[in-house]
Amino acid sequence: MNSRFTLLAVGLLAAVALAPATGALAQSKLVLKASDVHPEGYPTVEAVESMGKKLEKATNGRLSVQMFPSMQLGGEKEAIEQAQVGAIAFARVSVGALGPVVDQLNVFNLPYVFRNTEHMRKVIDGQIGQDLLDAVTNSGKGLVGLCWMDAGARNFYDTKKPIKTLADLKGLKFRVMGNPMFVDMANSMGANGVPMGYDQVFSSLQTGVIDGAENNPPSFVFDNHYQVAKYYTIDEHLIVPEMLVMSKKIFDSLSKDEQADVKKFAREAQFEERKLWDAYEQKAMDKAKAAGIQIIHVSDAEKKKFQEAVKPVWDKYGPKYAAMIKRIEATK
Ligand code: GTR
Predict the structure, then answer these.
(1) CATH class entry, domain 154-239+283-330
(2) Whose CA is nearest to atom 4 of ligand 1?
(3) Measured in angstroms, how far is the CA atom of residue 198 from the centroid of ligand 1?
(4) How far is CA 173 from the centre of its chain?
(5) pLDDT (0 to 100) of residue 45
(6) In this structure, what are the phi and psi dihedrals at residue 150, rounded to the nearest 5 degrees?
(7) What does DSSP assign to residue 110?
(8) What would the pLDDT profile of 165-187 be if each residue is shown by its tens digit?
(9) Are 270 and 129 in contact, with CB atoms under 8 Å apart?
(10) Which atom of ligand 1 is nearest to the CA of 93?
(11) Distance set, CA 171 to CA 126, 252, 325 (Å)
(12) Regarding beta strands 154-158 and 90-94, do their DSSP bridges make them parallel or antiparallel, or are they unpaired?
C-alpha cells in the first residue's frame, strides 16, 4: 500500500511539475531569423528590424526578429531556399531573384515596364501589389508574401569607360541577377549578361571577371561597388521592387493573432522603408559624387534607343504577362 501510495504521489507530483512546463512551452519565445544581403543601416534592414521591435512589443516578447545582414547567411537564392524549408523566417529579396520561383512576379522584371519609380510605387501599393503578394502565398512554394520594399531604379556601372550611348555597352561583361530575363536584357543591349549571385559581384569587379554590373545608387555605394567601378550611367533600365517573404511553415505555426501582427507590421515596414529609401538614395548619390564617380545622365533621345533595344525581351516574355501589363499601364 505504502509503496503504491508513494508511486501515486510521485506520479501526481510529476504531473503537477509538468503542467507549468507545458504551459511555458506554449508561451515559449520564438526568435524569427531574417536575412538581407545589405548591411546594417540599409533601409530594408532597418525596416525589418523595426518590424521586429513592434512584433516583440505586441507579443510581450514571445516573438522577436534576429537580423542577419550583409549576406551572413548567403545570397538571395539561398535566403529564399532557407525560408522555404523554415531554416529562417524572413527573406528580404529582390523580385529579380524571386521571379524564377514564382513566375507571375517576372512581369516586374521586364525592362522599362514602369514609367518611373512613382509609377512603380502606385502599382505595388495598390491591388496589383496585393495580387502579387497573394500569388507568392498561394504558389505552393512554401512562402508567404508579406510586403513590398522600394529599390528605386537600376543603372549600369563599370570599371572600363563612361557609358554614354547604347553603343558603349557593346562587348562589355555586365553582371546581372540570376534570372534569364536579365541575361537576355543585357545581351539585347549589345553587352554580355553574366548571371551571378550578389555575394560575388564585388570580387568579380575587382578581379575583372566582369566589367560592370547594374544596380540602384544605394547598392552601388553602400555595398562598396563604387570603390572599383568609377562610371555610373543613369538609364533606369529596370525598376524592380523587392519583397519581404516569410517561411510558410513558420507563419502557419503562429497563432491567428500573431499572424495578424506580422501582416500589420510588415505593411507598415513597406512605408517606413520607402521614407528611409528616399533619403538613402540621396546620400548614396552625394557619396558617389564626393568619391569622384563619373555620373552620366543618358539623354532622352538615347534612352529611347535603350528602350528599343530591349524589344526582343518583350517579344519573348511579354505575351505571357499581357493581361498584367495592361493593368500596370492603366495604373495612373
Ligand atoms: C539590390 C537588391 C538586392 C539584390 C541586389 C542584386 O538592389 O536590394 O536585393 O537583388 O540588388 O543585384 O542582386
Answers:
(1) alpha beta
(2) 94
(3) 7
(4) 24
(5) 98
(6) -80, 145
(7) S
(8) 999 999 999 999 999 999 999 99
(9) no
(10) 9
(11) 40, 49, 31
(12) unpaired
CATH 3.40.190.170 fits 29-151+240-281, yes or no: yes
Report the C-alpha gap between 76 and 84 in whole angstroms. 12
Whether 157 and 220 have beta carbons less than 8 Å apart is answered as yes
**What are the grid coordinates assigned to 286, written together?**
552625394
**C-alpha cell recorded at residue 300:** 532622352
Beta pairing partners, 194: 175
Domains 29-151+240-281 and 154-239+283-330 share a fold: yes
* pTM for the full predicted model: 0.91
Identity of the residue numbered 28: S
List, chain by chain if needed, residues with CB within 6 Å of any ligand 1 atom: 37, 76, 93-94, 96-97, 151, 177, 198, 215-216, 219, 242
Which pLDDT tens digit goes with each residue over 25-50? 456 999 999 999 999 999 999 999 99
Amino acid, single-letter form, for residue 75: G
